[in-house]
Specification:
Structural class: mainly alpha
Mean pLDDT: 90
Radius of gyration: 20 Å
Strand order of the largest sheet: 1-2
Number of helices: 13
Helix content: 55-70%
Distance between the termini: 25 Å
Low-confidence stretches: none
Number of domains: 1
Number of strands: 2
Strand content: under 5%
Order of helices and strands: HHHHHEEHHHHHHHH
Length: 347
């Protein structure tokens, strides 16, 4: 049984990789043909960003469609095949009411909202040259988080928080604000991290790979399979997105990955390990908050530019070097998170 599930999870990840790898050039040509390129907004407030990234003006965006379209497409195909062919495809179907309905819905809605934002930015519709303001994004994150928190608390009756080496503790009504904080933080952090070629894709890869292991150990095999398809799609995406990127992920990718990551950590009750699974996400968002707070209160900057990946660019690190070093840090901390997970579970 366990070996069969391991094979199933690996097979689904492999199928996702191959499908996305085939789909990517087709979608890439579509983006180029219709000139759906990124607009680099020159601003006096972000001179370093403009200096290093103005050359990327016009590079196609919305590449995140490759990731979520592959995952959702496979989910729908295997679900329908399983329904119409008397369970022959049950082995590959990972759509499950208890385990994957919520992350699939979260992935879909966040992806569509991000897609709208990308289109607004591409066609320069909206304030500051197009796209949603940060405050608008935070409001959207909060609405999605509130809906999810309501479902978890009132429908699923989740009221516990798992603390490694301590166990589950009852937090009752505090579960709602805690859930909202995790979802908003994950979405915001992913959005801020998506600033260099391949950066968010690689960071997310290690986070979802770790959660695939966690879900498998918890015997949530459908959730592990779902996460594995995300990993496969991310690998194919990175094949084309590493420096110099042929296209960018866009908000349709960063929003969907961030919110789905948050939902998965809540489903596996590993929210307190998220800072390790996604350590770069934490560092990136923290750098933005620190920078904005310092500028507001003390009228001075802590970093040359924020998020922190732009700070290292300003220090002279090549873009690919920043990305690769952040990937290494992500891999180390994701591994550390898994070590703590296993030690806390089996000691």
């Amino acid at each position: 049984m366990v070996i069969a599930q391991v094979v199933r999870i690996l097979v689904l990840g492999g199928i996702s990789f191959l499908v996305a790898l085939i789909f990517t050039p087709i979608f890439g040509r579509f983006l180029h043909k219709h000139k759906l390129g990124k607009q680099i907004r020159a601003s006096e407030a972000t001179p370093i960003f403009t200096k290093f990234h103005q050359k990327k003006e016009g590079v196609p965006t919305m590449g995140g469609v490759i990731i979520w379209a592959t995952v959702l497409g496979l989910a729908l195909i295997f679900f329908l095949l399983n329904r119409f062919f008397d369970g022959v495809f049950n082995y590959l179907n990972f759509v499950d009411r208890a385990q994957t309905y919520l992350p699939i819905v979260a992935l879909l809605f966040a992806a569509l909202i991000g897609l709208v934002d990308d289109l607004l930015g591409t066609f320069r519709i909206g304030p500051n040259g197009g796209g949603l303001r940060l405050t608008h994004k935070l409001i959207i994150f909060a609405v999605i988080a509130a809906i999810g928190a309501w479902w978890f608390y009132f429908k699923l009756e989740w009221t516990t928080l798992y603390i490694p080496f301590v166990g589950n503790i009852q937090i009752d009504g505090w579960y709602i604000p805690f859930f909202m904080f995790i979802i908003i933080a994950a979405a915001f952090s992913a959005n801020e991290t998506d600033g260099l070629d391949g950066l968010l894709g690689g960071v997310s890869l290690f986070a979802f790979a770790a959660l695939t292991v966690v879900a498998f150990v918890l015997h949530r095999y459908h959730l592990a399979a779902f996460s594995s398809t995300i990993v496969g799609a991310l690998l194919a995406f990175l094949w084309f997105n590493i420096y110099p990127a042929r296209f960018f992920m866009g908000d349709t990718g960063s929003m969907s990955l961030g919110i789905t990551l948050g939902v998965m950590t809540m489903l596996t009750n590993t929210a307190l390990l998220l800072p390790l699974f996604g350590v770069i996400l934490l560092v990136e968002s923290a750098s933005v908050i620190i920078q904005l707070t310092s500028k507001k209160l003390f009228k001075r900057k802590i970093f040359l530019s924020a998020p922190i990946h732009h700070h290292f660019e300003a220090r002279g690190w090549p873009e690919s070097q920043v990305t690769m070093r952040f990937w290494i840090i992500s891999a180390v901390f994701a591994g550390l998170g898994l070590i703590i997970f296993f030690l806390a579970r089996y000691l």
